[in-house]
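In the laboratory, one determines a bound structure by crystallizing the protein with its ligand and collecting diffraction data. In a computational setting the workflow is compressed into a single prediction: the sequence and the ligand go in, and a structural description comes out. We illustrate the idea with S-adenosyl-L-homocysteine.
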Amino acid sequence: MQHFPIFLDLKGRTVLLSGGGEAAMAKLRLLMKTEAHLVVFAPEPSDEIVAWAAQGLLALHPRALAPADLPGAALVYAADEDAARDTRTAELARAAGVLLNVVDDLQNSQFITPAIVDRDPVCVAIGTEGAAPVLARAIKRDLEERLNPRLGLMARIGKAFRAAAEALPEGRPRRDFWSDYYFGEGLVALDAEGETALPAALDRMLDRHLASETSAGRVALVGAGPGDPELLTLKARRLLDTADVVIHDRLVPQEILELARREAILVDAGKQGFGPAMTQEEINTLIVRHAQDGHHVVRLKSGDPGVFGRLDEELDACDAAGIEWQIVPGLTSAAAAAAGIGQGLTRRGRNSAVRLLTGHDVKGFAEHDWRALARPGEVAALYMAKRGARFLQGRLLMHGAAPETPVTIVENASRPDEQVIATTLAALPATLESGDVAGPAILLYGLAPRARATAAAPAPARSETTLKEFA
Ligand code: SAH
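The predicted complex, in structure-token form:
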């Protein structure tokens, strides 16, 4: 971020602008929304600028900017649309140490004016550091449509009520009150009866919120999906947006954590400082403690919370403490892995069942019904199976599985760095050892990538192909 966005208080400050044509007028229209003292230098000002000066909206000097004009100014705009004059303005600004904007010249500007969506006092500023003005305009258009034109009015009336709303306890009760105003009863009152109904609606709402009991804490066990933020459910997004505390796994990526409410406390349960991961016992205690403090806790787990997620232990802890909980399912990584290789997890005539297996459990490498799995046509998604690959290969071959049974390793499924490696049961351990598979991976046993499965020639028995960008 080269340009840091801030909102500058211009009340009573002086803003200088050199120029009297189109570019000057465009900037002045924006600047006239502020409470700044505007001073324009233009030997040949447009009729509009002359009219604005006559209305007292700005001070107009029919001459060029001079060194004595600059001291004390907050900002200077070089808007002459003339290289020589703009350079002169820039030199004066730099010499006086006043922040400078040269219109349409990012390179020579010290600050830039963003595209804005104005619902004063609510203001959205959009900047792309000059990279994509088209994008900025599109975002502005989108927001203009989405933000109620009367949002500013609501915010102004709301602002005057802030002191009264402090009668509610800080934190969630107060936040609930304001959500009710902006998105619930307040909005309804405005739509039905207009602006004059808002103060009475605020009084009514405050009485009701003061009378309601302080909200109890609760826990949502939420699936974050395999990593692509677009694969989050709408419910997961909404809960993240309103969470007080988010306790997440190591595998949940930063882009998803950024969707959490800005004030939410984020706890990485996969880490403890720089030390080892928290124990399950510690995680349970943490969840319960935050909920008992009245917080809305989101326990965010990669994939689906009910697939190798120790869901029951956390539910038991909530139940034991009498805490209300809900489960929000997520897309399990096996589904994303299968999608990544263009295969269904089941297919008519091939496999009518699919198993989700873990490579290791509390006792070490996990035992399964190897005999059943070794039968031709079986399909399984193996989680946490990288380390135990040699073990499970040995077990399967011992129970009669064909060495050429396809196995596809899908690392970082659904993420930008997804990697697909097609191999066979016989070659699996060697493939994993020689391949660079450091991220989380699903082994799809019995499935080859679609391109390979449908290729004319049958796959050779021992082949290892890296399809880095399998499409
Ligand atoms: N609840 C999760 C699984 C948790 S166990 C789910 O439903 O997906 C952790 C294991 O999940 C990892 O060892 C890996 O095998 C798998 N996994 C999680 N995210 C993955 C991803 N994006 N790509 C491939 N495997 C992933």
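Residues 83-96 form the longest helix (14 residues). Keep in mind that any predicted model is a hypothesis to be tested, not a measurement.
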